[in-house]
Amino acid sequence: MALTGTYVPSATEWVRKNVEEFEATDGEKGGTLPGTKYPIVVITSVGVSSGNLRKNPVMRVERDGAYLAVASKGGAPEDPVWADNFRQHPEVDLQDKAEKHTYRVRELDGDEYDSWWEHAVATWSTYAEYKKKTDRKIPLFLLER
After folding, report:
1. Helix (H, G, I), strand (E, B) or coil at 126
2. Which residue ranges traverse the bilayer (predicted)?
């Protein structure tokens, strides 16, 4: 894992607890978002303001070894905080079950955005519902090794 620094758990209780549960088994069992069947990966990023390491559970969307982080925030009117972390520090660590690697992050646009959005919705149809709840374009971030 390439990222080093001080890890500061999320102030948001469900995020903090979800990460703690995932890491309690070193990801061996995997994990799901609370109250759902959606499997997660845990992504560690560098905080824009603090410079501290932040961990977030994100619904697992993978294709050919690349992962997609969908900044939907459940259809909220604003992006999740981690989206700015990705934009400012485009290197993250991702854990999928017990497997951990470092990835480069880039925000998608155009045809590539459309292709990955279709894949995300085909993987988890709830993304289509989230899109209906917001006027913003939901950012998509591709994570590649």
Report:
1. helix
2. none
